[in-house]
Design goal:
It is built from 14 helices and 17 strands. The protein is an alpha/beta fold and 408 residues long. It has two domains: 3-30 and 299-407, Aspartate Aminotransferase, domain 1, CATH 3.90.1150; 43-296, Aspartate Aminotransferase, domain 2 (3-Layer(aba) Sandwich), CATH 3.40.640. The structure holds 4'-deoxy-4'-aminopyridoxal-5'-phosphate.
Length: 408
């Protein structure tokens, strides 16, 4: 018995899902872009403002202590949720983008030399490409693309073959936001480790869908973003091995990240605070803590099982649509489907689908190299979550058939 068995009750906890869009029930299939928020998250955020509003770590008064303990409790919750070895390994950031930049500028750039290589797959989000390109351009290093196959899977052998003595870091997306592919991250982490190469896994699209155990994966860095995890925007984390966080210089300077400041020299706070200068998004992180509590109460295994069923239904339904080409047909995949339809532009399809109440994303999904590989400028992407239903899949397919007739 899982709470997901009563899907109507679960959906009722997400107030946005009962909206009408152009007079039609909303079918929200844009979860890879950002997820909707349960009432528990909304209440946690507004509860902070209505009852506890104060800055963190600076005040001894009651509100300050309450705000600090709620904020730090969110760190404990996230550490437990992703299986971090300790709470000190969880650095709060604004999201995946900031987490990758932190690793690029603080961990890798100080030691990067001309000729060094950073190996990232061809299916990475720009957030796991561009920061490496920026530090490579400054240092004479090179970003090397790891190969993918026509099905949108990582070419594991080809990737491992590119690991060499020049490789300073391997970056890989856990679940591709553009293709839905679930990558064999454990294999790549182990291969990198065997060669003494640090690894970074982009878990943005993984943590909302199945249980992740960072300690078991044993990657050096794992990054995630809160808003895809049913939490507010502007929240995220870098989970990093303590030895790295101890050795890394601060990324940004300011208040809270110091132990003592003088004009003769400044000493820094311990991780994770060393990397969290200034006043953070307190309400947002309290919301992230509430999101993680909510997900654990529902159960990540139950969520994964329901999403696997939705994925299979969606896959079969899309297979029936004439002229539809799936971009990415990996065997191991999430309920994320990118596709193009003969004779219809992706943006036109998405715009017309919106008129039918269906929210999907169209475009390049911040993965230009992936789109280039498949020879398409843009795709429509339908990305599902556990709160979606079989009825919504049917409504989506009917809407797709209707808008195609309009475009024909
Ligand atoms: N990586 C992946 C796989 C993503 O899907 C996204 C968001 N689309 C990001 C990184 C960037 O996340 P954010 O914009 O929240 O930093």
């Amino acid at each position: 018995m899982s709470r997901l068995d009563d899907i109507a009750a679960i959906r009722a906890e997400f107030p946005q899902l009962s909206r009408l869009i152009h007079g039609k029930p909303l079918v929200y299939f844009d979860n890879a872009n950002t997820a909707q928020k349960p009432r528990a998250v909304i209440d946690a955020v507004s509860g902070y403002f209505t009852e506890h509003n104060a800055n963190v770590a600076r005040a001894v008064h009651t509100l300050g202590e309450e705000a600090t303990s709620l904020y730090e409790a969110a760190r404990d919750k996230l550490a437990r949720f992703v299986g971090a070895r300790s709470r000190e390994e969880v650095v709060f950031t604004r999201g995946t983008t900031e987490s990758v930049n932190l690793v690029a500028y603080s961990f890798l750039r100080p030691t990067l030399k001309p000729g060094d290589e950073i190996l990232v797959s061809r299916m990475e989000h720009h957030a796991n490409i561009v920061p490496w390109q920026l530090i490579a351009a400054e240092t004479g290093a090179r970003v090397v693309p790891a190969p993918i196959t026509d099905t949108g899977e990582l070419d594991v052998e080809g990737t491992v073959a590119l690991m060499n003595e020049r490789t300073q870091l391997v970056g890989l997306v856990h679940v591709s936001n553009a293709l839905g592919t679930i990558n064999p991250v454990a294999t790549i982490i182990a291969a990198a480790k065997a060669r003494g190469i640090p690894s970074l896994i982009d878990g943005s699209q993984a943590v909302p869908h199945f249980k992740v155990d960072v300690a078991a994966l044993d990657c050096d860095f794992y990054v995630l973003t809160g808003h895809k995890l049913f939490a507010p925007t502007g929240t995220g984390a870098l989970i990093a091995k303590r030895e790295h966080l101890d050795a890394m210089p601060p990324f940004m300077g300011g208040g809270e990240m110091i132990r003592r400041v003088s004009f003769e020299g400044t000493t820094f706070n311990d991780p994770p605070h060393k990397f969290e200068p200034g006043t953070p998004n307190i309400a947002g992180f309290i919301g992230l803590g509430a999101a993680v509590d909510w997900l654990e109460a529902v159960g990540m295994d139950a969520i994964a099982a329901r999403e696997a069923r939705l994925r299979d239904t969606m896959r079969a339904a899309l297979g029936e649509v004439d002229g539809l080409r799936l971009i990415g047909t990996a065997r191991e995949r999430a309920a994320v489907f990118s596709f193009v339809v003969e004779g219809a532009h992706a943006h036109d399809l998405a715009t017309l689908l919106d008129h039918e109440g269906v929210a999907v994303r169209s475009g390049h999904h911040c993965t230009h190299p992936t789109m280039q590989f498949f020879g398409v400028p843009a795709t429509v992407r339908a990305s599902l979550s556990f709160y979606n239903t079989e009825d919504e899949i049917a409504a989506f397919v009917a809407a797709l058939a209707k808008v195609r007739r309009m475009l024909a």
